[in-house]
Amino acid sequence: MCDRGTFIDDVTVPDGTQFSPGTTFIKTWRLKNNGSCTWTSGYKLVFINGNSMEGPASVAFPASVAPQQTIDLSVTLKAPASDGTYEGFWMLENASGVRFGLGANADKQFWVKIKVGNATQPAFAVTSIGMSANPASHSGTCPVTITFTGAVTASAPGTVTYYWEQSDGARTGLKSIEFTSAGTLNVSHTWSVGSPGSSLNGWARIYVDAPNHQYFDKANFSITCSP
Q1: Is the dihedral of CA 210, 211, 214, 215 positive or negative?
Q2: 87 with 68, same domain?
Q3: Which pLDDT tens digit goes with each residue over 67-89?
Q4: Does the pLDDT of residue 118 top 80, yes or no?
Q5: In 12-116, which ranges are continuous DSSP H helix?
Q6: How high is the pLDDT of residue 212?
Q7: For residue 121, is it within any domain?
Q8: What is the percentage of the chain residues whose pLDDT exceeds 70?
Q9: Nearest alpha-carbon partner for 223 in 136, 134, 132, 149
Q10: Paired strand residues for 32
């Protein structure tokens, strides 16, 4: 069969993850190309039915995937405003507009399933991240190294997993920080940016993969590079 997929893992937001109403989160599935055709950048992740959670109708593949290779496909969603259990179902679509999915006949959908409500929030959560960039503004020789600091505050002991995301689309691998008690710990990230004669306004931010599945505020910067 030319186009067929296999589910490998819920990289983020396993079934039954609970969110407060209106929380924005990223759902990522890891899928394997189990067919005979390469999935190109003309392929898409497409919403089929259920609750869309304010997600897009489709998302283009970020890269080509040869047979027997895997890919992580992500979509940004938002928890509905009312308490309850919600499901949204997704499939894939090839460059010719033909939809396909998982299983032997490539007809099975995959899904995101969440719970919405405030009554039983987990005790351990990241409650805030104070962000800063140093230097926040620069005028002179480039490239210049910007150091970003995030003051991560957690409500209880536990392990926070996270990654840094930059305004140019780059992001780090998954990192972790261990809290032995409630409090605040600092994490940092550097970015060497700018070229002679250029100017740029940019930012970096932190995505908390666990326990929150949530973006926090950006640290903005502005640079003007001398010729």
Answers
A1: negative
A2: yes
A3: 999 999 999 999 999 999 999 99
A4: no
A5: none
A6: 86
A7: no
A8: 98
A9: 136
A10: 6, 70
Contact assessment for residue 124 and residue 154, using Cβ atoms and an 8 Å cutoff: yes
Judge if 112 and 152 occupy the same domain: no
157: its two tokens: 């002991």
Domain edge (last residue) among 116, 135, 165? 116
Total domains present in the chain: 2
Amino acid at 149: T
Nearest residue to 38 via CA among 75, 73, 5, 11: 5
| Stretch 162-168: mean pLDDT | 96
Terminal alpha carbon distance of the chain: 56
On whether residue 157 sits in a domain, the answer given is yes
Whole-angstrom Cα distance, residue 28 to residue 50? 17
- Supply the CATH number for residue 166's domain: 2.60.40.1930
Domain finish residue from 84, 116, 148: 116
Asked if 53 and 14 sit in the same domain, the reply is yes
Q: In the beta sheet, which residues pair with residue 221?
A: 202
| 9/97 same-domain check | yes
Pairing of strands 5-10, 219-225: unpaired
Q: Tabulate helix, strand, coil % of the chain (nearest 5).
A: 0, 60, 40
Q: Which secondary-structure segment (H or E) carries 188?
A: strand 183-193
Question: Could you list the residue range(s) of the whole structural domain that residue 167 is in?
Answer: 126-225
